[in-house]
Amino acid sequence: MEQYIIKGGIPLVGEVEIGGAKNAALAIIAAAIMTDETVIIENLPDVRDINVLLEAMQEIGANVIRVDRHTARINGGKIGAHSVDYEFIKKIRASYYLLGALLGKYKEASVPLPGGCNIGSRPIDQHIKGFEALGATVKIEGGFINAKADYLHGAHIYLDMESVGATINIMMAASMADGNTVIENVAKEPHVVDVANFLNSMGANIKGAGTDVIRIKGVKKLHRTEYSIIPDQIEAGTFMFAAAATCGDVLVKNIIPKHMEGASAKLTEMGCIIEEYDDAIRVIGRKPLRPTRVKTAPYPGFPTDMQPQIAAALAIADGTSMVTESIFENRFKYVDELARMGANIKVEGNRAVVMGVEKYTGARVSAPDLRAGAALVIAGLAAEGITIVDDIHYVQRGYERFEEKMKGLGAKMERVDSEKELQLFKYREG
Ligand code: EPZ
Fold it and tell me: Residue 84: is its pLDDT beyond 80?
């Protein structure tokens, strides 16, 4: 199995280019089948989740051509099956975006019920509530969600919580319903706005994405478009916290600084210097970092997908910090792994009390999920000595060329696939 091996203690210095947003791209790829014409999507991140979803779409009959690593040409005109195979949803939950897309276009869809995952149970009751409000009959049979409608009509939907997935899935279905739909208490994440902009570029009529209320006038057909995905705020934040934890000086390029306000504000509280440019942010770390308190919240609050990364930096701050996870119920599994590297963190319910220690020491650790894996890499980069991270397939789901980008910033980090390579690295780096 592939592993990352890292010789820590080297400040990250230099420039790093951020790729397209995984969580926008997954929904946009699914939405691309809502027209019978050809859609070209650019700035796709070349990561596992994207590649699996593209496969799932080919499986149901979409014509998918990977023009290059970051560009796909998709035509959903000949989709035959409206049922997505279990194999795909097992690999990637976001296949459930095909529910909204297929229901919107064909008025029927069948997608395996996505399991929970390592960070929580992750129900989809809000998605189903929205589809039913639009006139669909939704049944869960044999592990599948079967949604069907004679026709979809506009509705006034109030979400119980600002669910990113439910907001996007309902928005997709409603974009081709008859009449007007209002969705309240929606998620406002940048990737929700990106999906709305993409659908509008196909001829949808969606207003208010990024605010608390989205208003949609359904249309009969959607048409071809060419679209470029927004930069990935979570990948950007990961590199920002890595710069902080290694007391480095990193220019994070090709981003939208406004999307990074949550991370920038916290890094400033932690004593880092933040310089904002039009499409870049420079992070200059300090040693030791200052402690702070952070609570994850729906956008524009501090993103839950950056919670493990800030905790990894705070674990070597000079004092005690508080990290509160208010979105998912099981997102502290990385704490036990950080403890192996010398961290002193006590988890009490949805709060972690992070008592800063002077330094991490390298150890062998295992990534419990995508963002936790990234946090372990951050700890390894800051640690004294050598860290080996197992189960990096989680990390590869959401980070393109992660080790290459880190090496571009001066990190001594390799992705290895054998004991021999591991030993060679140890011998070389001492
Ligand atoms: C998206 O997941 C992201 N995934 C997650 O990123 C991210 O952590 C999450 O949004 C929050 O920002 C993708 O976009 C592919 P939610 P999603 O619906 O849509 C509860 C990563 O690291 N809920 O906003 O599944 C749910 O249990 C991943 O890239 C319901 O109760 O998240 C959670 O507590 C991890 N019922 C909260 O809402 C529902 O029907 C927020 O979930 C839906 C959600």
Answer: no
